[in-house]
Design goal:
Helix content: over 70%
Oligomer: single chain
Structural class: mainly alpha
Number of helices: 1
Shape: rod-shaped
Distance between the termini: 44 Å
Order of helices and strands: H
Largest sheet: none
Strand content: under 5%
Radius of gyration: 13 Å
Number of strands: 0
């Protein structure tokens, strides 16, 4: 249970870190 929660947090954090990067790329792309 603890490992699943840890994995979920890591994946969620990775997604949150990826979203601003994609947004920045879109802005610089324009």
């Amino acid at each position: 249970s603890g490992n699943q929660l840890e994995t979920f947090i890591h994946e969620y954090a990775a997604r949150l870190a990826t979203i601003p990067s994609l947004t920045a790329l879109d802005v610089s792309g324009c």
